[in-house]
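Problem: given the chain below (219 residues), write out its structure.
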Amino acid sequence: MHKIVIIESEPFIREGLRVLLSKEPGFTVIYHAAVPVALFRQAWLTPPDLILLDMMMPKKYGVEVIKEIKKRWKTTKVLIFTVKDEEENICDAFRAGADGYILKGTTRPQLIDAMRNILAGRYYVCSDILPKIIQSYLSVEKTPVDNHLNWKLTSRESQLLKLIAAGYKNKEIADSLCISVKTVETHRATLMKKFNAHNVATLLSGASQTGVGSSLQAW
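Solution.
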């Protein structure tokens, strides 16, 4: 049973989400509140599996909330649930550690699909904002770096980067490329090192900033 927390400023929406998710097989809502501050007063024996987080708050504060969640509960997934569809907000959320981003007004099946994907270890963005993210990577101006060898990708690394961006897990990547999971892990570690990245969000951000954003065209 997945433990879910809802942080939503609007009482009507919050209660609706609580009722909806409580009826969903495999989900149990263990806490809900209007503001993130209330969340950090909780002392769970085991942390929640997923926090559905409203981002209707000042940008910097929202980013700090995500970082604090990840700092306190490393295994907890964060799904942003918001009306903000600006590219900057989306990128800031993922850089801070968010696992998914979905807009209010989405359908019930889409919300449940997003949550299940994230709980399965994949990143998720709703279809309404995906074009903005793709365009962001494709339109990044190529900038010179000190050492091109640090980020130049082999064809295999490019393939791997596309699959990582699409949210594939190591086993799924291995099956797709007909290689071993150990080989996938080696390539993934090499990519992280090349872009000085510590998670998927910073890996993709680093790829775009060094002009390798075109490697993500198959996303």
